[in-house]
Write a structure and sequence with these properties.
- By secondary structure, the protein is an alpha+beta fold.
- The chain has one domain: Protein Transport Mog1p, Chain A, CATH 3.40.1000.10.
- It contains 4 helices and 11 strands, in the order αββαβββαβββββαβ.
- The strands form 3 sheets. It has a 7-stranded antiparallel β-sheet with strand order 3-4-5-10-8-7-6, sandwiched between helices.
- The radius of gyration is 28 Å and the shape is elongated.
- Keywords: Signal.
- This is DUF3558 domain-containing protein.
- It comes from Nonomuraea insulae.
Amino acid sequence: MHRSRPAIAALLVAIIATACAAGPAPVGPPPSSPAPAPDLRPVVDQAPYWCEYIPQEAFRRISGITQPLTEEKDGPWKDDGGCLLSGNGTEPVGVWWSRIDNSAARLKLVRENWQHTDQIPLPSEIGDGFAAHADNDMLSGRPYYVISRFTCGKKKPWIRIDLETVVKGRDAIKDLTDLMRIAQKRYGHLHNCSPGPV
């Protein structure tokens, strides 16, 4: 069978028109699946712990961070110390404490440093202190902050916890307060004393 040139030309035009009408082939990866819903369950005190004071499961619920983290301690950890968690170039949590520092002077200085924030007082049963969230980049990118001075035996220690992020939908101040309550309980366990208000 022999087709004329006009018939072949018409067939080619029809093929090209159909290909153009279909649009370009999709470029790039397929759309990702929606992010999992945040974990809004309450903070719970259960081992294992990060930096001696923060339950790992509680931290992951609060922050939503699931990546592996490395714990880096600073100081002798007998009378005082500090600890950072690091992973993927960030340090999403810091814990600092002392039982030899003047806790009243420490809290006074911290209140002055955080005076531009809304300092929410902690419940009196967990000592004198506050929880806050700074909009700016306080504490090397960890703007969620809680500090408390309390009694434990004959000492008046203080503990500070700061977080990089809190999952949207969680109550950050309540979570920070709950973390402090757990940290004080852990302090009492580690130092063989009973935590109480100042």
